[in-house]
Structures are given as C-alpha cells and as structure tokens.
Specification:
A hairpin with a 2-residue loop joins β15 (630-631) and β16 (634-635). The strands form five sheets. This protein has a five-stranded parallel beta sheet. A four-stranded mixed beta sheet has the order 12-13-11-14. The two termini are 51 Å apart. The protein is an alpha/beta fold. The protein has helices at residues 17-22, 52-57, 61-69, 76-85, 116-142, 174-193, 209-216, 242-252, 272-276, 290-296, 299-316, 335-356, 363-370, 376-394, 408-414, 417-430, 439-444, 450-470, 482-503, 507-525, 543-555, 562-573, 597-602, 617-624; strands at 41-46, 89-90, 93-94, 96-102, 154-158, 217-221, 224-225, 229-235, 260-266, 285-289, 536-542, 577-585, 588-595, 611-614, 630-631, 634-635. The protein is elongated. α5 crosses α6, α12 (335-356) runs parallel beside α14 (376-394) and α14 packs across α16. It is built from 24 helices and 16 strands.
C-alpha cells in the first residue's frame, strides 16, 4: 500500500520547513489571542496531539521564511494573511520571530545529586545559554546567513535596563557571546555527566537573565536595524522536573522585561487541583487550552481547520483525489439499506400503533404518518419520532383523559432537533444501520484533537485507497460506504477502549469509569421517551463535589478522594473527557465531563454533545474500583 500520509506527523523537527509550511493549516491561528503581544506571556496547553508544537513552529524563522517568500502562491497566501492579522509579518518581512527552546533534553538530568542551592542556579544557567544560542541561530536563519560565521554581519546595541543585569555579558561581539554561551552549556552538561559532588567551577545563575537580555538588545544586519521582535518559546515544558517547571513559571509568567515568552505543555503535567479549578492563577498572561478553544469557537471553524489538514494530506500523497471528505459517503440510503428498511417498516408502524392504542389522542399523528411520502429511512425516522412523543405523552396521565386528538401543530411544537436526532439514532441501532459516517461526523469524533483526527483519517484512508485501486479502470468516483466507515470506526473505538490501562498510570481506573459512564449513557439514551434527546453523553460534578476533588488534589494521598481526583484529572489531560466548566442549570453550577466522541462509537451513543447526568463522588469512586451498583435494573448515580 502507498505511504499513508495521515500517519505522518509534520510538526516534528525532522520534517523540512518547506514541507511543514506547505501543509500547515492556518485556521489554527484563529484560536490565539487577537492582540498577540498585549501580555508578556502565553501558555498553550492541550492533550497529546493537540497541535502545540505545530502552532509554535510556524513562528520560527524556517517556516516563516517559506511563507514570506511564497506569499503570493497557494497555500502560503492563506498562512501569510493569517500571520499578517496577528502582526507577525507585514509588507513581505517578518515583524516577529520565534526562538524555539525544547525542554525535552538535558534539563531533567539536573536532579537529586545536587543540592537545591546548586541545582536551581544550574538549571537557570542552562536555560539562559540555550536561549541565547538559539536566538543567534534564529537570527542567522531569518536573514539567510551561515551560522556561526554569519554572526560577523550582525551588530547589536543594548538599552539601559531598570532591572538588575545578570551574568550574561552585554557585548557587541556576538561571536564572542556565542563562544561564552557554548562554554557555559558544555560546563553544565559536563557536570551532569560527572559523578559525585558539584564542581567548584559550576556556572550558577540567580535568575533567567536571557529574557531580560532579549528585551535590552537590538540587532542590525549589514547595518540595517532588525525590526522583528523575538518570542522566547519553551516547548514540552511537561518534560521538566516539577520543581523546574514551577521555577520557570514563577519567574517568567509575570516578568516585566517586555519580551514575549510562550510556554507549551501537555495538560497531563498539571496538578489535579490546578486542572479541576480550570487554570493556575492568571495575572499578566494568557492561557489557551486548545481543545476548549476549538469547542468554544463558531461551529464550522474546527471543521474547516481539520478538513483543510486532511485535504493537504491527500494532495501530499499525489493521488488524483484532492478532497478527503468527498471520498466518504454522506448517505446511509443505498439500495441495500432502502430494501432493508422497507421490509422493517411494517413492523415498526405496528409497534407505534400499538403504543397509541386505547386513546384517540394520537389519531391525527398516526394518520399523518401513514400518508407521509418519503424514502423508507426517512419514514422510519418519522414513525420513531411519533413513538418518542407518544411515550412522553403517556407519562402525563392526565393528558390521556382528553378527548380531542392532538393536532399536527402540537406535534411539531413538541418535536425539536433533539427528538429528530434521537429518532435517527434509535432507527440505526434497532435496524442495524450505520450511524457514524460522513466527514462532519468523522470530524466530531476527534474531540477537537488533531492527532486523534489524523488517526481516524488514517484508518478510513485505507478504505479510500482500496476503493481507488479496485476502481482504477472505472470512471465511478471513489466513495467509501457508510457501512464501511461505521465498521472501521467501531474497530478503532474498541481498540482505544482496550488500550486505556496501558495509556497512563491510572489507565485501569480510567477505563472502569469510562465503561460505567458509557453504559449509563446508553441506558439513558435509549429510554423509549428519549428524555435527554438526542441522548446522554456525559456526567456532571456539582460545585461541591468539584471543590472536594480540588481539596483532595491539594491534600495528597492522605485524602480518600486523592486517587479519584488524579484519575479524573488524567482523563481530562488525555482528552478522554471533554470539559465544560461553569455550566449553569437549575440555578446551580456544574462541571460537565462529556465522553470523548470516539467512545460514543463504542457505546452506540449519539455523536452530538448531548445531555448529562449528575454522578456523586461516592459513585465515581465505586466505578473506578470496578463496582457498578444498580437499582431497578439501572446503574445508580448517587
């Protein structure tokens, strides 16, 4: 089989800048603050695969140069326009550039063998010199100079600072500055390789001076002032030791130097109390939680973003197919399905008539359904909608005493979009028809996570490719059937659920909670009267229970709910739950945890956000231990 481009991650540094920038989807830039440089710091957080590294990388000199050079060509023109709106590029030149400092190598090794008074200054020193070295390299790349020889073409001046200057020499000789920084880095790394006590010649810095240095320095290349402002970008902050991460945030989140500092990390690094309270305390910085930013955006924004990525991947594979979505059937009503539903319709109609028997209240509804002219699937949905409404009316016993039949207008008033969507789900489940198909439903299943979307696409592309091969001599367009899509997605969802115990430390407990929540949602969704139409797909914590979990996270293992708090936090961090903070209902505040959409495939739920049910901490703790108490044949929630 040809290489599946959906299985390739273009955000990694191994991907050439030209390839990365060509396939970058600029829609993601819309989730950033509109006034990008209004605050001193920006924090980007997401579950693994949320797109943090790609978002940072587009601001670095390599991709930035590609976009500027090709700004009049597609697809670079769209990226250029988006960067222009953010004030990053203007009139064919860069007005800002990112200095990417990965936190994945070298820092975590600064650990227990050193005393705190040594380890902290050593960590600062290593951060300082690496930020300097990457700044100098970025400048050379931005202005097409060889590194390090090109540093001779760059001069610099320093503005006077109100803050105390640190150990970084404010020299105009950037070659000498590079040599100094490289020597400090070598000494830091040599200490990490050494065994025993700390060296007396250790470079120890008392604060992150490189950020202050960046705010003071102004560069000239061949005598021309560099107008582009630097952005210090720390990626993979979750790879640092907890004390290193805390130190970096404490000293740089609220710095006053004027240099923009960005941080990117996975949400799974956050303490349970931080995650459950929504964020660490805000002062002079912005926080963007990528999945939540997409969920709060306008409905089509995320769809446009990921379908743009998918279409670029299709082009990357050099096939005649250019649209991923167009290769997926968006209809369930093929010939075989029509025949199957047509055969099942008489039995369905009979069941609804039986439900309406004993009263004349529903005569008009039944009569209108009998004359409803549509293809079999739509007829089945229409009859099922009436069945749902009859079940609801029968719960209102006083209504059955009325003699005047309910009118069609009264039926329409009771039939919202939720009832129609619930009826479709009922029909697909009861008749064994595919439900998860078509590009818009596929996008919803990704739960606002780019990597999850690409994993889904990789599975579906195998079917697209197989059809392309089998139809190579035919003029018929490639279109993967709804049935094939549904089967492929169900297999992927089943695999995802089974993999949970191996995904992270508390994966088994998370799997048990997901399993109990999924079963509960299925029970509530398929109640005959569809009380939470279109269906239930989430659980909710009261504000009191939320505070109890926050307290447990702060108290530590001695609190009986600590493991539960850690498990729920890990589920959110791994994107197993989609969080809706501060949801108001019945004059109360709730935290709603919606199941990852792919789990909705596994439990035969709806693809919509849907309704939710309050679950007590006691019951959640039972679930995490594999216990699902029942009452009246239903899973108990409190």
């Amino acid at each position: 089989m040809a290489r599946n481009a959906f299985a390739i991650r273009t955000s990694e540094t191994s991907s050439p800048d030209e390839v990365f920038s060509r396939y970058f989807a600029p829609e993601v830039l819309s989730i950033l603050p509109q006034d990008l440089f209004a605050t001193s710091a920006l924090v980007l957080r997401s579950a693994p695969g949320g797109g943090k590294t790609s978002l940072l990388r587009i601001f670095t000199p390599g991709p930035l140069i590609q976009v500027i050079r090709n700004r009049n060509l597609s697809p670079y023109d769209e990226i250029y326009r988006s960067l222009t709106q953010l004030g990053v590029v203007k009139e064919g030149s860069a007005h800002a550039f990112g200095i990417l400092v990965p936190c994945a190598s070298g820092y975590a090794e600064i650990g227990p063998q050193l005393e705190e008074r040594t380890s902290r200054p050593l960590f600062r020193a290593l951060v300082n010199v690496r930020l300097i070295l990457r700044t100098l390299r970025a400048l050379c790349m931005l202005y097409d100079l060889d590194y390090p020889n090109g540093l001779s073409a760059i001069t610099c001046d320093y503005a006077k600072a109100l803050l105390d200057e640190g150990p970084i020499p404010r020299t105009e000789d950037l070659g000498a500055l590079r040599d100094w920084a490289a020597d400090i880095e070598s000494r830091c790394l040599a200490q990490l390789d050494a065994v025993g006590n700390a060296s007396v010649d250790l470079p120890l810095h008392m604060h992150f001076d490189a950020v202050l240095w960046l705010s003071q320095v102004s560069f000239k290349v061949h005598g021309r002032l560099v107008a582009a402002r630097p952005i210090a970008m720390f990626d993979d902050v979750h790879r640092l030791r907890p004390w290193q991460r805390a130190l970096l945030y404490k000293e740089l989140l609220d710095h006053r130097s004027g240099t923009s500092v960005w941080f990117a990390e996975r949400t799974d690094v956050i303490n349970p109390s931080e995650l459950l309270t929504g964020a660490i305390p805000r002062r002079d910085f912005e926080e963007v939680r990528i999945e939540q930013a997409w969920s709060n955006a306008r409905p089509k924004q995320y769809v446009d973003f990921v379908t743009s990525i998918a279409d670029r991947r299709m082009v990357q594979m050099r096939t005649e197919l250019e649209s991923f979505g167009d290769s997926l059937s968006n209809s369930v009503t093929d010939h075989a399905t029509r025949d199957s539903v047509a055969k099942a319709l008489p039995k369905l109609e009979q069941e609804i008539r039986k439900l309406a028997a004993g009263t004349s209240l529903f005569d008009q509804w039944i009569a209108n359904a009998e004359t409803y002219d549509a293809e079999p699937f739509s007829k089945a949905v229409e009859w099922t909608k009436i069945g749902i409404l009859i079940a609801r009316e029968r719960q209102k016993s006083q209504r059955l005493l009325e003699l005047v039949p309910l009118s069609e207008e009264e039926r329409e008033a009771r039939t919202g979009s939720g009832v129609s969507a619930a009826a479709e789900r009922f029909v697909c489940t009861n008749l064994g028809l595919p439900y998860f198909y078509g590009i818009e439903r596929v996008v919803r299943l990704s739960s606002y996570n780019v990597e999850e979307f690409l994993q889904i696409c990789a599975v579906l592309y195998e079917h697209i490719y197989a059809q392309r091969i089998t139809r190579s001599r035919s003029s018929a367009p490639v279109s993967v059937s709804a049935t094939s899509q549904n089967i492929a997605l169900a297999k992927l969802a089943n695999k995802r659920v089974k993999e949970l115990p191996r995904l992270f430390t508390l994966g088994l407990q998370a799997q048990r909670i997901i399993e109990a929540a999924g079963q509960m949602c299925r029970e509530k969704t398929y109640a005959p009267n569809a009380p939470y139409a279109p269906g239930v797909t989430g659980i909710a914590l009261s504000s009191q229970d939320r505070e109890a979990l926050v307290k447990a996270g702060r108290d530590g293992p001695g609190n009986p709910y600590f493991e539960l708090a850690s498990t729920i936090s890990a589920c959110v961090a791994q994107n197993l739950f989609e969080v809706r903070d501060n949801h108001r209902q019945d004059n109360k505040m709730w935290v709603v945890l919606y199941l990852n959409r792919l789990f909705c495939v596994h439990y035969n739920l709806v693809y919509h956000i849907g309704g939710w049910q309050r679950v007590s901490l006691r019951r959640l703790q039972d679930w995490s231990r594999g216990v699902m108490p029942r009452a009246n044949h239903e899973i108990t929630l409190v």
